[in-house]
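Summary: Need help interpreting a holo structure output

Steps to reproduce:
1. Submit the protein chain below together with the SMILES for fe (ii) ion.
2. Request a joint structure prediction with the ligand placed.
3. Inspect the C-alpha cell block that comes back.

Expected: a single structure record containing both the chain and the bound molecule.
Actual: see attached output.

Input attached:
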Amino acid sequence: MSARIAHLPSDTTADQIAAGLRSDGVVIIDQLVAEEACDRVASELEPHLEAVRPGRDAFEGSRTRRPGALLGRSPSSVELIAHELVLAAVDQVLWPQKTTFQLHLTQAIAIGPGETEQLLHRDQWAFDFFEFPPEVEVEVSTIWALTDFTEENGATRVVPGSHRLPDEEVRSLGPDDTVPAEMSRGSVVLYTGRTVHGGGANRTDTDRVGINVDYALGWLRQEENQYLSVPREVAAALPERVQRLMGYQMGAYALGYMDDLRDPIRALGHGGADADGAPTFSTHR
Ligand SMILES: O=C(O)CCC(=O)C(=O)O
Ligand SMILES: [Fe+2]
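--- attached output ---
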C-alpha cells in the first residue's frame, strides 16, 4: 500500500482524480476553492456549529459537532457540494454508470480539542448488512478543509490502498496503517466508500473544521434525507443541477417517480421530461 496520499493541483482533471481514486482509493486536490468561499461557508455555518450538541457515541465523537442540512443552512456550500470537477470525477468512479448518483449526506464536522481518534471504517458500512461485490463502487466521500488539516488537529486518517481489501482484512487495520490527510484550507480529500479512514485525534486547542459531502448511487437510500432536511422553498430556489443531486430526479428507469409516473423535479415547479412524453429517466447524469 502506498504510504502517502497523492496531491493534485487545482487545475487537475476529472480523469486524473478518478485515476487516483481507482489506484489508491484516496486523493487530495489542493486549494480547489478560494479562502473567501471558505470564509462565507464558515460564517454561514457558525450559528449551527454553536447550536448543535456533540456526538452521542464514540463514532460520532463526544467532542465533535456535526450540523447537517448544509444546502438549507449555507447558500455558499453549493460551491463545494456541486463543484463541477468533483462531480465529474465522482461520475467516472461510481458504478454502474447507467443510474444517476445523488447526495448521500452533507455535514460540517468540527473535531474539538481533546477529541480522540474515530474508529476506522468504510463509509459504505452504512450498508453493512450487504457486502457489495468488489467491482461495485457505490459511494465517493469528500471532506473540504475549512481550517488547515494537520496531523495534530485531527486531519482525517486514511489507509491508502485499503479499498482493495476484503472486509475481514480491514478489521485488523490499526492507527499505524493510516496516514493523515494533511491539507491547507480550501483543499479537499476524496475517498471511495471502501477506503478505510476515520477522523483524527485533536491535540490542539482549536477546532478542526471540515465539510463532509458524500455521493452515492441513485438506487441506494440516502443517509441524510434531503427532502426533510432542506425546506421545499429553499430547495426550489437552488440550481436545477443541485436539485437533481439532492434526489429530485429519477434514480433509474423506475426509481423515484412521483404520483402518475412523473419526474420528481416537478415537485419543485419544473416541467419534467414526462411533460412531452419523453422518458423521465436519462442516463445522462
Ligand atoms: O471528520 C473526519 O475527518 C472523518 C469523519 C468520518 O469519516 C465519518 O464521520 O464518517
Ligand atoms: Fe467516514
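--- end attachment ---

Reviewer comment: The beta strands are 7-8, 26-29, 64-65, 101-111, 139-145, 157-158, 179-180, 188-192, 197-198, 208-217. The longest helix spans residues 35-51.
Status: needs-info
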